[in-house]
Inverse folding.
C-alpha cells in the first residue's frame, strides 16, 4: 500500500471541538460486496424480474446512472442475498480503471430491490452516528480521491478491499452538523441533477428532430400523401420535396445526394507528443484531449480537458489546435464517444476529428454519428482492441440534404445545444462551489445551523 495520508481531507488542519476522526468500520453496520450470479452475464434480463443488478458502470460520483441496468430472477437474487442494498446505502466502486475506480453514490430508492456485483461495495452506516449523505460528501470530495487511491496496490486495474474501507479515517462531526452539511451540499447536487435531466431532454428533442427529418423523412412522406408536414412553419416545410428518388442505398428525398462522409467534412487525427519532453507539457495552456476525458461526460459537449499542452507540443501534432465547434469521435478505447468541443483543442491518436462546414454542420454530424454508430463500429478492426481508422471511416455514405435545409436544421437545434452548454457550465460552477465548501465546513471556518 502506498503511503496513506493521515486524513481523508488533508486540507483540514484541525477539527472543531467535539468533532472526531473515526475509522469507517467503527460506525457501519455493513461493509461488503456481491458477486456475479452463477451463469454470468447470460442470466441478465432486460426488464425487472426480481432484483436489479448494480455494476460499477452505474455508479458515478454523487449520481446513479440507470443506463444499461440489468435484472436477475428471484433465484439469482437469493444467491446474492448478502449483497442486497437498502435505502440510504452508500455505493463505492472498489475495482476499475482510473476513471471508474473510487466513484461513489447513494443507491436511489427507484432502483430497489437491488443487489451489487463484486466490483461495488455496500457501505451501510449506523444512522445514529453517521448520516449517509455526509459520508458521501466526504468520499466524493477531490481530496478523498488521492486518499482512496493510496490504498490501491498499483497497476492499471485499481482495487481495494473491505479491510481498506473499514480503515478509512473519516472526520465525524456531531450528527446535527452532519445532516446540515449533507443538506446544503445535497441542494447543490439537486440543481446539478436537474441540469443533467434538462440536458437529456434537450438532447432527446434534437435527436427526435434529426430522426424525423433525416431518417424517417416525415415531412416528405406527408407531402407525398397530400398532407401538410406537422410542426413546421410554411418556410421550413417548403424546403422539403414532395417526392423520393432512387439512390445506391435506397429511396431518398428528391434533390438530396449520397456522398462519402470524408468528401463532405475534413476528417483528421491527432497524436501524443513525447511525455518525456517537458517543453511539450510543462506550463501548457492549450487543451489536449484523450478518450478518457469523454468517459464521464453527461452531454456531448467538451468543456475542459485533464491535460494541457504547450505551443511546442501543438507543433508536434499534425492536426494542430482544432477550433471550437469541432466534432470529436473516439476511434478506439472505445469506439464511439462523441462530443462537440466548446473550446479549441488538440487531440491524441484515439480520435477522428470532423471539421464541419455549411454543407454538414457539427450538430447534423453529431446526430448522424449517433444514428449510424452501429455502422461505424462495424468498420472497426483490431485484435487487442477495436479501432476504426480514418481510411475505414471516410467512405461511409451520408444522405445529405440541400444547404438550405441543413441551415434550417442547424438554426432549430443550435439554441438547444447552447442551453445544454450553459447548463454544463453552471453545473461545473456548482460542483466547484460544493467541493470548496466541504473543507471549510469540516474546519469550522463556515458553520451551518444543524437544526
Amino acid at each position: 500500500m502506498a503511503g496513506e495520508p493521515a486524513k481523508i481531507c488533508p486540507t483540514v488542519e484541525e477539527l472543531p471541538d467535539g468533532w472526531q476522526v473515526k475509522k469507517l468500520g467503527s460506525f457501519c453496520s455493513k461493509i461488503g460486496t456481491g458477486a456475479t450470479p452463477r451463469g454470468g452475464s447470460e442470466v441478465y434480463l432486460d426488464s425487472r424480474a426480481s432484483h436489479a443488478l448494480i455494476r460499477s458502470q452505474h455508479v458515478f460520483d454523487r449520481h446513479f446512472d440507470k443506463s444499461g441496468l440489468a435484472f436477475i430472477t428471484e433465484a439469482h437474487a437469493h444467491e446474492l442475498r448478502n449483497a442486497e442494498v437498502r435505502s440510504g446505502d452508500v455505493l463505492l466502486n472498489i475495482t476499475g480503471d482510473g476513471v471508474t475506480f473510487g466513484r461513489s453514490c447513494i443507491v436511489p430508492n427507484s432502483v430497489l430491490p437491488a443487489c451489487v456485483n463484486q466490483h461495488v461495495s455496500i457501505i451501510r452506516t449506523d444512522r445514529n452516528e453517521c448520516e449517509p449523505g455526509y459520508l458521501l460528501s466526504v468520499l466524493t470530495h477531490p481530496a478523498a480521491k488521492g486518499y482512496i487511491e493510496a490504498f490501491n496496490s498499483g497497476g492499471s486495474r485499481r482495487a481495494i478491499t473491505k479491510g481498506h474501507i473499514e480503515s478509512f479515517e473519516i472526520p465525524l462531526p456531531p450528527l446535527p452538523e452532519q445532516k446540515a452539511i449533507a443538506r446544503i451540499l445535497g441542494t447543490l447536487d439537486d440543481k446539478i441533477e436537474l441540469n443533467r435531466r434538462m440536458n437529456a431532454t434537450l438532447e432527446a428533442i434534437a435527436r427526435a428532430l434529426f430522426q424525423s427529418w433525416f431518417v424517417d423523412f416525415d415531412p416528405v412522406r406527408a407531402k407525398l400523401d397530400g398532407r401538410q408536414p406537422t410542426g413546421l412553419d410554411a418556410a421550413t416545410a417548403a424546403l422539403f420535396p414532395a417526392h423520393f428518388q432512387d439512390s445506391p442505398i435506397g429511396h431518398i428525398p428528391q434533390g438530396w445526394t449520397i456522398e462519402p462522409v470524408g468528401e463532405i467534412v475534413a476528417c483528421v487525427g491527432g497524436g501524443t507528443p513525447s511525455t518525456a519532453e517537458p517543453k511539450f507539457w510543462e506550463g501548457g495552456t492549450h487543451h489536449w484531449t484523450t478518450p478518457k476525458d469523454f468517459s464521464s461526460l453527461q452531454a456531448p459537449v467538451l468543456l475542459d480537458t485533464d491535460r494541457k499542452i504547450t505551443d511546442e507540443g501543438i507543433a508536434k501534432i499534425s492536426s494542430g489546435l482544432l477550433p471550437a465547434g469541432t466534432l470529436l469521435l473516439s476511434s478506439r478505447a472505445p469506439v464511439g464517444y462523441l462530443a462537440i468541443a466548446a473550446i479549441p483543442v488538440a487531440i491524441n491518436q484515439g480520435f477522428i476529428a470532423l471539421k464541419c462546414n455549411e454543407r454538414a454542420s457539427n450538430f447534423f454530424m453529431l446526430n448522424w454519428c449517433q444514428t449510424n454508430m452501429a455502422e461505424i463500429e462495424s468498420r472497426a478492426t483490431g485484435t487487442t482492441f477495436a479501432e476504426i481508422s480514418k481510411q475505414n471511416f471516410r467512405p461511409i455514405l451520408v444522405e445529405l440534404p440541400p444547404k438550405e435545409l441543413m441551415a434550417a436544421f442547424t438554426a432549430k437545434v443550435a439554441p438547444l445545444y447552447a442551453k445544454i452548454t450553459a447548463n454544463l457550465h453552471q453545473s461545473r460552477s456548482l460542483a466547484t462551489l460544493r467541493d470548496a465548501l466541504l473543507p471549510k465546513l469540516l474546519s469550522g471556518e463556515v458553520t451551518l445551523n444543524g437544526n
In short: The radius of gyration is 25 Å. The chain is about 35% helix and 20% strand.
